[in-house]
Amino acid sequence: MAEFGELEAQDGVRMPWNIIPVATKKEQQAIDSEVPVSAIYTLLKPLRSHSLLLPYSPLRCRTCRSVLNPYSVVDFSASIWGCPFCFNRNPFPRNYSSIADNSLPPELFPNATTVEYLCDSFSSPPPPPPVYVFVVDTCLIYEELDFLKSSLLQALDLLPDNSVVGLVTFDSLVRVYELGFPHCTKSYFFHGKKDFTKDQLLDQLSFFVKNPKPSSGVIAGVRDGLSSDDIARFLLPVSDCQFALHSVIEELGSSPWLVAADHRPVRCTGAALRIAAGLLGACFPGSAARIMAFIGGPSTQGPGAIVSREVSDPIRSHKDIDKDSALYYHKAVEFYETLAKQLVHQGHVLDVFACSVDQVGIAELKVAVEQTGGFVVLAESFGHSVFRDSLKRVFQSGENDLGLSSCGIFEINCSKDIKVQGIIGPCASLEKKGPLCSDIAIGQGHTSAWKMCGLDKNTSICLVFEIAKRDTAEIVLQSQSNQFYFQFLTYYQHSNGQTRLRVTTLSRRWVMGTESLQELSNGFDQEAAAVVITRLLSFKMETQLEFNPQRWVDKALINLCTWFGDYQKGDPSSFSLSAQLSLFPQFVFHLRRSQFVQVFNNSPDETAYFRMLLYRENVSNSIVMIQPSLVAFSLHSQPEPILLDVASIAADRILLLDSYFTLVIFHGSAIAQWRKAGYHNQPEHQAFKHLLQSPRDYTDTIISERFPSPRLVICDQYGSQARFLLAKLNPSDGGDAPFSGESNIFTDDVSLSVFLDHLRRLIVQ
């Protein structure tokens, strides 16, 4: 799979089918019904040094608006280039007059399949500064609030001086702070039961005391009726209000309202988010702005409430949602869908940092966070390293920064026989309909353009395509050339304020599906295929009632292995797969056991959290979510990856499990005894000390590069927290025989070998 990694390093793209199957309707349905022609695209992936930043506007086709690229056919004598998408011939402008075979513009270099254009002109006004509105839950116990205040003060110190900030707090009331008032702490209160419009919000915040309210039109920023002085009362540069903001945060106290033992605190999360969105929409529309919500419990009042105040009324579970007995769920989702549309229209991002041992409503908030491209961090406490480290990473600059960008628009061009079914990922449809749009919608579909309010260097989307189907192979051969072309265009505002356009142009060869199975398998990326079907499966679980994920993924695996396997009918021992597909059954086995399919032991909030991270991560990170990696450390060998199997446990080994969300350092029984005896503190046992430190160094590297920060669990064999490792291992012995660590795993799950035996028997029938 190294060659697919090379393609990703060049353009940020991984496709399951790198040689695209083109076939008749019957054949196409059999070949790619469950693993469709698709692509995982990391929009702003840091690319190799040869990726170009061109200080001028792109040259576009007059018909389809695609951008000049290395696959364009150039006639140097006539100074004309041919578009590979619509085949239209376009003249070069005067500034390309010197073009020649030995004097090409950079965008025509053969390796310039991904280039960036600088869209700002020298006369463009300076970009507005980034804007942050902190929305803080004060219905917390004193210890939790102190943890949160400490992290907020550290985050404020990391903000650039020109950043604009605002502060909103909430319990049963929403409190908007006037940070520009110099004499004392001044704030405006709003009742948490009400849903305020933007006009009502501006009236109550006294925006039109000195200046008259515009008689008509939309009120949005300084250009449309608001004075800069009024805006600066609530949203102003951090350098101008640093002392006031620090003072307000330090003075924050827990909600003064007494809460009975059998009641939950009155918390109006939805009203607070609506007010923050309205304030940003009025003052900084279309700018790089983020609402950062810090939530410590479930919303119990006003719009977006997910549960009643009585503790005897449990928060909804997966079973309640499936049976349509969650009283608050659908109304809350409807409210956050409306909030998502408002934020997408304004171009603003919603980030959620949820820290509680209880559910807080991530399942309902998911639509607003996902469509705006926001972050979500889920932890047990505001004092937990998962929250503290993740918040620091948001504002961190340097080698491991997130590369935050904003105000993105993503568009696509394809060859005429390719249609776009949709995108599964952090974006919102712009409803740009046209001939590229398929009749079938998956995710954000029925469009060829999407809005991405927030994105970073790891943001990845899954594009699902439909290849035009023909009745016979002869029609296919007559109607198509042997290449398909894709062009991805991403407009965005860089973290340095520049407006850029990144253009990635791809070419993939097609073959007849049933006549060239060997060629198809040679171009099959099994890691990308596993990630695509995981995204599709998760999307179907969210949107289709009575959907059976195990049956669906089993059918996908059986269909694929039936087509590409080599076997004799009736003989399971004769079955084999080529190297390009050999790991795919193993990925499916671990997917069936993963948190994406098995939701029984997870809350709706946890399931939504897992899916949101899956929908925005690249192939390498997503495959770790599906099949965790396991590394062994011992005194007798160098660290090495080993099988994710119970047989890998040994008394004299340390195992490091990376499941993306959790890192587990597992000490074998002998290692644990030596550590407790203090051997690592003795000079003659420096090798043992180094052994104990090695997995910590590995985890430190992973934590420094990953967002959100994973949870770190350090445990011993036979300890209670060893379950974090044992739950992910393949029960190869089925619980019937001990492995080298003299322990058993008792489980109803079948082992990988039993799963593969069943698969072989089904295929050769």
From TrEMBL:
This protein's source sits in the domain of life called Eukaryota
Compartment(s) where it occurs, according to its Swiss-Prot or TrEMBL record: Cytoplasmic vesicle, COPII-coated vesicle membrane; Endoplasmic reticulum membrane
Q: Which PANTHER family match?
A: PROTEIN TRANSPORT PROTEIN SEC23 (PTHR11141), PROTEIN TRANSPORT PROTEIN SEC23 C (PTHR11141:SF2)
Q: Please report the stretch or stretches of sequence annotated as the Sec23/Sec24 beta-sandwich domain.
A: 407-511
Protein name stated in the entry: Protein transport protein SEC23
Domain (Sec23/Sec24 helical) ranges: 525-623
| Start and end residues of each Sec23/Sec24 trunk domain | 127-395
Q: Which UniProt keywords apply?
A: Cytoplasm, Cytoplasmic vesicle, Endoplasmic reticulum, ER-Golgi transport, Membrane, Metal-binding, Protein transport, Transport, Zinc
What does the function comment of this entry state? Component of the coat protein complex II (COPII) which promotes the formation of transport vesicles from the endoplasmic reticulum (ER). The coat has two main functions, the physical deformation of the endoplasmic reticulum membrane into vesicles and the selection of cargo molecules.
Residue ranges annotated for the Zinc finger Sec23/Sec24-type domain, each copy included: 58-96
Q: What is its main location?
A: membrane
Family per similarity comment: Belongs to the SEC23/SEC24 family. SEC23 subfamily.
Look up and give the membrane topology term.
Answer: Peripheral membrane protein
Q: Which residues form the Gelsolin-like domain?
A: 638-725
